[in-house]
């Protein structure tokens, strides 16, 4: 989410990798029944949403910001899953999921270029479990889900494991940039960066409008949180110089 902002829609379904944990003492019936037992109306684990254009829609939400900080400083946050996850105000906890033991590959398999590249990508990919807390219909609700993070030369690729037939893929890109007209070239700490988050969304027809609107608002909040965190880091760098 992004994984991080899109997590609000995971309360709709307990299928897949998500586990819903309601605040039981505060959830009266019948709302508690709907929240605590959504599996009856949700697809089983491993479900793949229908690919027919009648049932599924695809869209892209792009959020961009020009920031007065050098790319290497921005990448310190963007390529750190724990820091990037905690930019989301809904997050209350996160942890790295230990990778499963891998079976030794044969010499024939490792000799194949494509398979070797895939194996290298798997080694660099990290899976994180994230716990969020928010309010649904005015009631406190918490839930957990997982997301994989794969660093790229200029950012990170994030694949949240959403539910309710929603699939997400977020790409963060950080590149050097020229300052706006009238602004100092050095910015607030030796340079400027163009930061872009591109989120691809696949969702059921009835959910797409709500999902897109939620993501657009949340992504702007993430950029604000990123800029605030960069201000803090830049201040520490200046103090230490």
From TrEMBL:
Signal peptide region: 1-19
One Pfam short name: DUF7053
Membrane-spanning segments: none
Top-level lineage group: Eukaryota
Domain DUF7053, residue spans: 59-231
Positions with biased composition (Low complexity): 104-118
Protein keywords: Signal
Region (Disordered), start-end ranges: 98-125
Protein's name according to its UniProt entry: DUF7053 domain-containing protein
Origin species: Calocera viscosa (strain TUFC12733)
């Amino acid at each position: 989410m992004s994984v991080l902002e899109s997590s609000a829609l995971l309360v709709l379904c307990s299928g897949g990798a998500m586990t819903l944990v309601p605040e039981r003492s505060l959830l009266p019936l019948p709302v508690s029944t709907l929240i605590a037992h959504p599996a009856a109306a949700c697809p089983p684990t491993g479900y793949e949403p229908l690919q027919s254009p009648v049932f599924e829609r695809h869209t892209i939400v792009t959020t961009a910001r020009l920031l007065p900080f050098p790319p290497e400083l921005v990448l310190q946050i963007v390529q750190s899953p724990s820091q990037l996850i905690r930019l989301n105000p809904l997050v209350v906890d996160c942890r790295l999921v230990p990778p499963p033991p891998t079976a030794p590959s044969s010499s024939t398999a490792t000799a194949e270029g494509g398979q070797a590249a895939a194996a290298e990508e798997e080694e660099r990919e990290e899976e994180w479990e994230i716990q969020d807390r928010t309010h649904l219909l005015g009631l406190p609700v918490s839930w957990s889900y997982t997301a994989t993070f794969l660093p790229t030369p200029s950012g990170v690729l994030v694949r949240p494991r959403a539910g309710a037939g929603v699939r997400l893929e977020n790409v963060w890109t950080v590149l050097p940039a020229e300052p706006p007209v009238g602004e100092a070239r050095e910015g607030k700490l030796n340079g400027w960066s163009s930061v872009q988050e591109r989120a691809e969304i696949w969702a059921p027809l009835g959910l797409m409008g709500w999902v897109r609107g939620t993501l657009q608002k949340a992504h702007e909040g993430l950029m604000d949180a990123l800029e605030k965190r960069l201000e803090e880091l830049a201040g520490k760098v200046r103090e230490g110089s």
